[in-house]
Design goal:
single chain; elongated; 84% helix; mainly alpha
Length: 136
């Protein structure tokens, strides 16, 4: 980073650091909410837990096909870019909305973040459209 006049870089870094701390605190409080943890646990059982159960039961009762299916899926989960992680989060958010519709605090945080994301996407689309028009 280049050093700027009058400590502008320090001010910008302090502002950035404050924003990162606020965002991290918000996300941690959202994720460590007991209701969210329960929903995430249920979603994890839906997406991953069955394969570990298959491996345990298949190995214990000597059911080869169960052991093979569970082991293969577990091996697939260890690839770095599996969609399972994203699917687990989506299922947990769905379960949170269905199981705890009156949990206004958590759903409010989720709605605010979704609105921010939609606004950012809309701004990007408008910027791209303006750039295309300028090139013509």
């Amino acid at each position: 980073m280049k050093k700027r006049k009058n400590g502008a870089l320090k001010i910008r870094l302090k502002y950035w650091w404050r924003k990162i701390k606020q965002w991290t605190k918000k996300i941690i409080s959202f994720c460590l909410n007991p209701r969210m943890l329960l929903c995430f646990g249920l979603a994890w059982i839906i997406t991953n837990g069955w394969c570990y159960a298959f491996m345990a039961i298949g190995g214990w009762l000597k059911i080869n096909w169960m052991l093979a299916v569970g082991t293969t899926y577990a091996a697939f989960l260890w690839f770095p870019f599996t969609p399972e992680k994203l699917i687990t989060v989506i299922i947990s958010l769905f379960l949170l909305k269905r199981l705890f519709p009156n949990d206004e605090k958590t759903l409010k945080v989720l709605q605010k973040e979704l609105d921010k994301l939609k606004a950012a996407i809309k701004r990007k689309k408008e910027q791209r459209k303006l750039k295309k028009e300028e090139k013509k």
